[in-house]
Specification:
Blueprint: H1 4-22, H2 34-50, H3 73-77
Amino acid sequence: MPSNFAVQRTLAFSLFFLGCLASPVSIAERAISGGDYANLQLFEQFAAAAYCEINNNGQTAGDKITCPAGNCPLVESSDVVAVYEFQK
């Protein structure tokens, strides 16, 4: 009967070998266009503005969306206004 150490060593080697087989051989280079990147930045900043407390407390329709933390300069420069607010 094999010892516990031998069983553990065999199991560890098997897991390592299977992990090597499952890992990718090469990673393909990926890129997005400049326009898509700009849209993602704007989307990210709108998401950040949604979490700014000033935009959630007391904001009424027509109020400008602001971000005092400075996380949303693209949103602020676009002169976006609140259309509707609701609280959970």
